[in-house]
Each structure stands twice: as structure tokens, then as C-alpha cells.
Design a protein that fits this description.
It is a single chain. The chain is of the alpha/beta class. The chain has 18 helices and eleven strands. The strands form three sheets. A six-stranded parallel β-sheet has the order 3-2-1-4-5-6, with helices on both faces. It has a three-stranded antiparallel β-sheet with strand order 7-8-9, with helices on one face. A two-stranded antiparallel sheet has the order 10-11.
Length: 398
């Protein structure tokens, strides 16, 4: 199990941008042999998105496409389609996130591939699903955030919605798809049957809001933005600015935590104030309580508050930026950063996010150069050297 729990499984992907490549990166980290199929001339378009290494390597491409081999082929040609058909016949999983019309034109639909490999797990990712009124909308992360409702509970009620600071819709789609693929592989091991797996970015990001949305479905109360607080809990739960400009995240929503906080900050009178005696009352008086607490937390610096409140058993952490996260040594100590050597420059990235103690995830190879493994892969599926050279000469492969 030195190469991970998916060692021996082959994944073929034709994906681009974020969700699809991230899904397959996770499978690769877990040991799968992931073969990334790209357009023959320019490759996946994320190769052209910076920031870049001094050697011209796209860091976004490098991070999402580690642990993969690269095959560059022209799928607009019958020969290119035949290559992928022969490759899929040897695969356990095929993943794509391109439009169904394009997949149909290339002969890569599930209906076309299933006869070639009845055990195939065929996974595809769309923006909004293949049914319903939004099925033809583009699956772009900002659009997904807006449509999912997550922006309606993030930020300040008197300000325009603020997008979350990274591509959470794409990331959610990649994670949920990888989970669904693993479930389909377990089903295949039990029954011998492959199947089609479809996920959407919208449904995936909705799944990341199961608490708030489930509450709405059962109460019909629409949660609203609460600034530095949260629609999930009244103050003192929330983010608070301190005297030095630093911020703390305080998770104190229960009544006993509220009383302990009042004593910790030197305001036992607030614990006896009938307006704040229960969670529901603190919610009813949220603006007043927020104003009182804001003034209290401006009386000390961030680290003073953290030490003081932790001494009283309260749940509090600093609000860290990326520089803080790397500088404090936690990522290194927990093995959450990996370093990769690439021909175009060194790359640092986050490691696989879970520890499998008996069959750990690993980073075994950097992201491929465009077409780096084309010859290698074609030889594995039966092409001769003469056939490979002829295909390369005609521009079918790179």
C-alpha cells in the first residue's frame, strides 16, 4: 500500500479549470494512475493563467494536476477519438467537466463508452445539473456562489454581497465528485457494475450549507447577513476587532459560555441583565449587544485577549492571514505542505487533507508538461512506435 489505497486503479480525465482537475488530483493523491487528456496545441487553458514560476509554469495548473500523466490529443479527429476510446477501455474511471454537446461530438458520452467498458465509472461535473431551468447556464464559481445562497448569509446586511475569497463552489464540486466516484467504485467491487455519476457545482456548494439551509426548510425563517457575527448564533459568537487592529474569532453561543465571558471581561452585570439572559434574548437584542461587546474588545490587544479568554476556558482563536498560517509552523508540524520539483520550477502546495495511517496519500510526480507522457501511454494501450510517430506527424498527438 506504499502508493495509496487507489494504487492499481486508472483514472482518465478530460477536465479543465478547477473542479474537475481538483477531483482527479485528490484521486491521484490517493494512489490512482491519473491520465490527463488535453488539447493537442495549447493544452488546458489554465496553463496560461498565472502567477507563474520563473520558468513559466502556471502555479494553479501545477497544484491541481500533480500525480498525473499527460496525454495531448486532438479529439476533433477520428484518430484522436480512437485513442481515448482505447484508453478508456483500460480505465476504471472517466471524468469530464465539458458540455454534453461537446462530449457527444467527440464520442465520449456514457452511452458511447459503456459498451467499450461496462465496468467503467463515468463521472461528469456540470454547473447547475442536467435538469431544471438552469441547466444551460455556465458553471463558473462566482455564479455558483450567487445562486447557492451562501452570499446571502455572508457579509454585512447594509452592504452588497461579498464573494468568498476562494473558489469554494469549484472546490466543493471536486470533493463531492471524488466522494461519489469512490462510492461507485465500492458498488462496482460488490456487483461488478459500472455506472454514470453526475454532480453539479450548485448541489455541491448547497451541501456545504446543510445546517443553515436545513434550518430554513424546517422553519421557513430566512437567515440574513450578520456582519462580523453569524446568522447561526447571537453575540458573542463572531469576529471581534481588538485594540491593535487584530481580530479574534469567539465561539461562545451557549448560555453558560455567555456567563463565563461576562465574568472574564469584567462585566458580570451583563450576565445578570435580563435582556441577555438566554440565547433567544441575545438574538432579539443583537444590535445593542454587538455595540457593547465591540467596545469591550477594543480595550486589549488581540494576543492579550486570546491568552486571557483561553485561561477562562473560552473558545477563541486569532483571525489569521496566509502569512500567519505559514509562519506559525502548524502546517509544517502536521505535514500539510508538500514541495514538488518540476522542470519549470519548484512548487509548494497543500497536501491531501486527511491522514490515512495505513495507506497514506502521497505526491509522487509533478504536473505534466503538455503531452509529456503521450508516447508512454499510447505504448501501454497497444500502439507501435511507427503508429505513434505517424500520429504525431499528422498533428493528432503531441
Amino acid at each position: 500500500m506504499a502508493y495509496g489505497p487507489l494504487h492499481g486503479y486508472r483514472v482518465v480525465e478530460y477536465t479543465h479549470l478547477y473542479a474537475g482537475p481538483y477531483c482527479c488530483q485528490l484521486l491521484g493523491d490517493l494512489g490512482a494512475d491519473v491520465i490527463k487528456v488535453e488539447p493537442v496545441h495549447r493544452g488546458e487553458r489554465i496553463r496560461e493563467q498565472g502567477p507563474f514560476s520563473p520558468g513559466g509554469l502556471s502555479y494553479p495548473f501545477a497544484v491541481r494536476n500533480r500525480n498525473k500523466r499527460g496525454l495531448a490529443v486532438d479529439l476533433e479527429t477520428p484518430e484522436g477519438q480512437e485513442i481515448v476510446h482505447r484508453l478508456v477501455a483500460t480505465a476504471d474511471v472517466f471524468v469530464h467537466n465539458v458540455r454534453p454537446q461537446t462530449v457527444e461530438r467527440w464520442g465520449l458520452s456514457y452511452q458511447r463508452l459503456r459498451p467499450l467498458n461496462p465496468r467503467l465509472v463515468y463521472a461528469w461535473i456540470s454547473g447547475f445539473g442536467d435538469r431544471g431551468p438552469y441547466r444551460d447556464l455556465p458553471g463558473q464559481d462566482l455564479q455558483i456562489q450567487a445562486m447557492s445562497g451562501i452570499l446571502s448569509v455572508t457579509g454585512y446586511p447594509d452592504r452588497p454581497s461579498t464573494p468568498i475569497g476562494d473558489h469554494v463552489g469549484d472546490a466543493a464540486g471536486g470533493i463531492i465528485t471524488a466522494l461519489a466516484i469512490l462510492a461507485a467504485l465500492v458498488h462496482r467491487e460488490r456487483t461488478g457494475e459500472g455506472q454514470e455519476v453526475h454532480t453539479s457545482l450548485l448541489s455541491s456548494l448547497m451541501a456545504f450549507q446543510h445546517d443553515r439551509f436545513s434550518t430554513f426548510l424546517n422553519t421557513l425563517r430566512i437567515p440574513t447577513k450578520q456582519g462580523m457575527g453569524s446568522p447561526a448564533a447571537p453575540p458573542p459568537y463572531g469576529i471581534w476587532q481588538c485594540r491593535d487592529g487584530g481580530e479574534i474569532a469567539l465561539s461562545a453561543g451557549r448560555d453558560e459560555q455567555w456567563r463565563e465571558l461576562c465574568h472574564a471581561v469584567g462585566r458580570p452585570d451583563l450576565a445578570e441583565d435580563p435582556r441577555f439572559a438566554t440565547r433567544d434574548l441575545r438574538e432579539a437584542h443583537r444590535p445593542l449587544l454587538t455595540s457593547l461587546l465591540r467596545e469591550i474588545f477594543l480595550q486589549k490587544d488581540r494576543d492579550e485577549w486570546i491568552a486571557h479568554l483561553r485561561h477562562h476556558g473560552l473558545w477563541v482563536t486569532p483571525v489569521r492571514d496566509y502569512g500567519d498560517i505559514v509562519a506559525d509552523g502548524d502546517l509544517e508540524a502536521t505535514g500539510r505542505i508538500v514541495d514538488m520539483d518540476h522542470p519549470l520550477g519548484k512548487v509548494r502546495a497543500l497536501a491531501f487533507p486527511a491522514d490515512l495511517r495505513g495507506s497514506p496519500a502521497t505526491v509522487r510526480r509533478p504536473a505534466p508538461l503538455l503531452g509529456e507522457h503521450t508516447g508512454e501511454v499510447l505504448r501501454e494501450i497497444g500502439y507501435t512506435e511507427e503508429e505513434i510517430e505517424a500520429l504525431r506527424h499528422r498533428g493528432v498527438i503531441r
